[in-house]
Amino acid sequence: KVSTMERRWTLNDFDIGKPLGRGKFGHVYLAREKKSNHIVALKVLFKSQLKQSQVEHQLRREVEIQSHLRHPNILRLYGYFYDQTRVYLILEYAAKGELYKELQKCKYFSERRAATYVASLARALIYLHGKHVIHRDIKPENLLIGVQGELKIADFGWSVHTFSRRRTMCGTLDYLPPEMVESVEHDASVDIWSLGVLCYEFLYGVPPFEAKEHSDTYRRIIKVDLKFPPKPIVSSAAKDLISQMLVKDSSRRLPLHKLLEHPWILHNADPSG
Ligand SMILES: Cn1ncc2ncnc(NCCc3cnc(NC(=O)Nc4cccc(C(F)(F)F)c4)s3)c21
User: Fold this and answer.
1) Ligand 1 lined by 58 (C-beta under 6 Å)
2) Atom of ligand 1 nearest to the CA of 24
3) From residue 148, how far is each of 70, 73, 134, 152, 272 by CA, in Å?
4) pLDDT digits (tens, 9 = 90+) for 206-218
5) N or C: which end of the chain has fewer CB within 10 A?
6) Which residues are identified as catalytic?
7) ipTM for the complex shown
8) Distance 193 CA to ligand 1 centre (A)
9) pTM for the model
10) What is the mean pLDDT of the segment spanning 123-130?
């Protein structure tokens, strides 16, 4: 089987099917690779829009990062190709679609479903952080559902490699300012904060710091103005976990491996994820 990253793909290699969704930069279509009959999702991006938004480097970084990732809860990017006007991303097809639509339909999830999703996302983030990759954009819109109901993190357009030079690389940390030394941990824990926000939104149907005006949301976030509404009824174990993740001091947020040992996860998450 030819490695998908090396092959020179063209649009003629695919039969294009129904539209799966539309994003800011272009649409996503169901597609079938003609030789293998392999079903994929094909995201079509317009070069003009990418150029206009000066995000070409982000796209290159996304393809680079994704080509090294293999995890059941991370949507695969098999490869890409381009023509005169467009760039095409060849993506794993998530048969049960977008999580945010499921959340809108159900209003909010049961504690078991929420815990199962949070645990699988924590395992994917442990894998990502282990490769010095931070997603930085964990939100319902970037989560898809696979054919077995499993969650898949998608769209690494905003992900980055952390300060990937080994600390010993420059011989010594001594000359690095605090924010540089601190930033490595700091970035990784960005995703822990976002996972805490997600967990809250799975259980209550709205994100914790939602407000009418952006300025109010901003104020509520920096204040960590975390309130748990009386309805729907949510267990104190769930509230305890969320309270340990939505902590202002990034170094004090619950580490992901500790999250997987939290009673709420142990009691509610389906181990298969
Ligand atoms: C809706 N839907 N239903 C089923 C299904 N199955 C698979 N995929 C779907 N949808 C596509 C999900 C995506 C995965 N990876 C993406 N990556 C991306 O969109 N990257 C990207 C775009 C524009 C600009 C930049 C840049 F330059 F800023 F970096 C980066 S989008 C599906």
Assistant:
1) yes
2) 23
3) 17, 11, 26, 11, 10
4) 999 998 888 888 8
5) N
6) 137
7) 0.97
8) 23
9) 0.89
10) 94
